[in-house]
Amino acid sequence: MTKLTAIGVRKATHPCTHKGPAMLADGNGLYLQIMSSGSKSWVFRYTRNGKARMMGLGVYGENDRGVTLAAARGLAAQARAALAQGVDPLEVRRKAAAAEAAKRAATVVVAITFRTAGTEYVAAHEAGWKNEKHRAQWTSTLVTYAYPEFGDCPVAAVDADAVEAVLKPLWLRVPETASRLRGRIEAVLDYARARGWRQGDNPARWRESMKHRLPNVSKVKRQTHHPALPWQQIGAFMAALDRKQGMAAKALAFAILTAARSGEARGARWGEIDLDKATWTVSSERMKAGKEHRVPLSKPALEILDALHPLSTGPDSLVFPATQRDKSLSDMALSMLVRGMNECPEGEPPPWGDGRGEAVVPHGFRSTFRDWCEEATSTPHAVSEAALAHAVADKVEAAYRRSDLFEKRTVLMTAWAEQCARQPGDVVTLAGRRTVVG
Which band of pLDDT confidence, cut at 50, 70 and 90, is reported for residue 67? Predict the structure, then answer.
């Protein structure tokens, strides 16, 4: 058989006598394949386990990107050597390609740090989170505690020792923060595994890993409550609050009168308010339990809204806007307001305390409302829980509770508004007995 020459390969053309490729043999299984379009490539034909196989060796070319005749003969010789050893050259190529791909992937994975994985996790999931505060807290815990320790380490290299080193200093001091941090590190590592950036078990998972390194958080967690004003003093507090100027004072008074969370009141928009029906409807997206909540508005609550209504620019405008009209009041605005009301000489108890000497905070007024319901009224537990928009923990009870008890809550919120208007020394009948308001 006459072997091919470099010049012959360069000048070879398709005979155009048929549509398929023209095959010019060089011998020992090597062929030059010429397509009708004029393109040329090298092919090695061989038989393996009784089956004919064909292996491409590259496109012909005399430049750096092509395969010359000499190079094709070298590649064919390598394939024949593999066959002589009982190995399929196509399998050798497949394994080499897989190894190269794994090498490239490993190089990419090394470049994926825990910080990068955390940033991408937040970007992928933040659309499903309820509010800005949650998004900020999610990133803040990682930035404050995890990133300084292993944020710039490859996410594939984060192990149980690294996670424990971050959690241990916080576990007894601020167990709630530590527990949330552990869960967020676990989520980022799970995300990294799903993306192919790490393998193996998740070292931040409680049951399989951290449970054996740290004490159970429920055993060390100190039950903390928001300092709450005794309900007997709510009238005096509301009178003092009424003397305060500014949007924060109005928002706090509205939150107290509706037993709402601070964020629900601060984020209220006029489209949620029906002044004629005296109803405030908070969408499920803004509620902690993820369920729409109707709030009956008492006369004092309506008076606050009536005074602010001239500021409305439409259904989407905020009821309690900050200085910048398109932004809601911050949580700190209400906190600073209450702190200012509690300013007192050093060593003296705050004017508005919880009875143990701790200054009250805005969220504590929900506890004040709850205590009043339990101690001073005969309100059924289900009604007070519905007023507070608490989720029903018992699944069976939740399945049967189909009503939001709105009519009963309307009566309750009217009574609460009356309590908020009472002053020290007033004699009233509460839960069937005459009581002097403290």
Answer: very high
pLDDT-derived band at 396 (thresholds 50, 70, 90) equals: very low
Which pairs from 408-411 meet CB under 8 Å and 24+ separation? Answer: 408/380, 408/383, 409/296, 409/383, 410/296
> What is the average pLDDT across 254-271?
94
Look up residue 366 and give its amino acid: R
Cα 106 to Cα 198: distance, rounded to the nearest angstrom: 10
Task: Determine contact, residues 292/336, Cβ cutoff 8 Å.
Answer: no
Q: Taking the model in full, what pTM does it have? A: 0.53
Q: How big is the chain by its Cα radius of gyration, in Å?
A: 37
For residues 36 and 296, give the distance between their C-alpha atoms in angstroms, rounded to a whole number: 82
Helix axes 175-194, 114-125, angle to 10 degrees: 90
Residue 21 has φ and ψ, to the nearest 5°, of -70, 150
Please provide the DSSP assignment of 213-243 as one string.
TS--HHHHPPP-------GGGHHHHHHHHHT
Q: For residue range 302-316, what is the model confidence (pLDDT) as tens digits? A: 999 999 999 899 999
Distance CA 316, CA 302 (A): 19
Q: Distance of CA 265 to CAs 195, 243, 257, 320, Å? A: 40, 20, 10, 8
Domains and CATH numbers, the chain: 6-108 (3.30.160.390), 114-220 (1.10.150.130), 231-436 (1.10.443.10)
- Side chain identity at 297, as an amino acid letter? L
Q: Mark out the alpha helices in 388-423 (DSSP H runs).
A: 395-400, 406-421
> What stretches of 195-330 show up as alpha helix (H) in DSSP?
217-220, 234-242, 247-258, 262-266, 299-308
Classify 39 in phi/psi space as left (phi over 0), alpha (psi -120 to 50) or beta.
beta
Distance CA 335, CA 134 (A): 18
Nearest to 316 by CA among 329, 325, 304, 303: 325
- The answer to whether the CB of 253 falls within 8 A of the CB of 299 is no
DSSP secondary structure of 23-77: EEEEETTEEEEE-TTS-EEEEEEEEETTEEEEEEEEEB-SSTTSB-HHHHHHHHH
Mean pLDDT within 11-40: 89
Residue 142 tokens read as 């990682």
The per-residue pLDDT for range 199-227, each reduced to its tens digit, is: 889 999 998 889 888 887 665 554 456 78
